Amino acid sequence: MLNHGQVVRLIFGLKLRELRQERGLSPAELARACDLSVSYLNEIEKGKKYPKADKILSLSKVLEVRYDQLTSTALPRRLEPIADLLQSQALQEFPLELYGLEPMQLFELIANAPAKMNAFISTLFEIARDYELRQEHFFVAALRSYREMHDNYFEDLELEAQAFVASHQLAAAPPFDLTQLETLLTQHYGYTIDRTTLAGNPVVVVGRLRSVFRPATKTLLMIPTLSRGQQAFVLGRELGFNYLKLKERHYASPNPLEPRSFEEVLNNFRASYFASALLMEEDSLVRDLQQLFAAPIWQPATLLALLTRYDVSPEMLMQRIATLLPKHFGLSSLFFLRFDQDQADAPYRLTKKLHLSRQHNPHGNELQEHLCRRWVSLQLLAEGRALPPTGTTRRLAAAQRSQYLGTDDEYLCFSLARLGSATEPAMSVTIGLRCDDSLRRQVAFLLDPALPFIIVNETCERCPLADCTVRAAPPTQVQQAARRATFEAAVAELVQG
Q1: Is 25 exposed, middle or buried (0-12, 13-18, 19+ CB in 10 A)?
Q2: pTM (2 d.p.)
């Protein structure tokens, strides 16, 4: 992470270089006039060194500027976007080291071509303003990229979870014993568990909160309607925060507030990963997946049975599967999607996504268009909504081979959905695996003739399929493109005479 001193050095260096070039001085001429070595001046201009007061005074006299003008963090107007970036909380808190970058590499990139970097940064800022991108979006996107870099598998956290189980002599056989987690939190870490305070609280209802942690009293508030698996995850995540010594964190879950730092977002992910590794032990779940994939036909009941075996939610199970497929099955070309629907007549929202190895389809839709209803993710929600009400929460599973229209991109997609009544929220989670040689070797039911094969697209507005029976909107973008092509052809004909 960038510290204040590094930012000050770079701004000073950028300003010094700018003034030197305005005065028409070469590095050697300025260095000679100020009794500095050329190499030392070069390090100052690149933000590696910050001169002492007497040298700054000498530089200010030669450059004919005030001392305080040279030492202020204000840059010339044309370089203001660089100063804004360097002093932004987002960049200062961004852990460059996680991505294999040293702060000095960033310094040198900016210092070597400040004008070009300024134009690039200005463009990014303009895009961010136009699309109302907040710091939160930046942090979430950075975390997603970090996970993609590691194929979504973190061996250090897997080992930490195993060490935690061994050190406390816990029984890890599924389903994980809820009382073990609660006992450790209360007796070993001094927590108080409160399952009454949040009941009926209007803020909790509006924000759909599941838990709140009060650090001053080490009290964990949980809504009483959480399932056993949801409680276990909340408790496991709290153990992760403590065992991994993660200080900056969310205090409400799901977090309704804008994150204060990238470290907060990262720590929440690490604690959640730790909880999943506790509740769904690595070797055990790998064996279960091998059995699922070895079956010659698609068996949705086998996938649904894993929810009962580990006593977890559909999202928890599918998130955990997405961490193990690249490591243990060599299936690293995958995507993970979560769709939410607030009630039966509400639009579908893509609320989580992860792409490994490449940018797979479907992507996020930021244009308020209608997502393709042919994907199994949305088909499952629609089919579940159409079933007669039972008064209880349903869990459904389905799979599909999906080929993206106009390409050779084909995926094996399998989904889990959770649905209540027509007025209650519903969600589906999907893992898509690219159909390649590796998948064909690993998944026997890929050849199941009963497995649906469906041509899919991105959104209804961009889809030319004429025989689609589930279209939610006309192909307006296709029609607009056709009109544009006709117009361009007519102009070309006029030009050619």
Answers
A1: middle
A2: 0.78
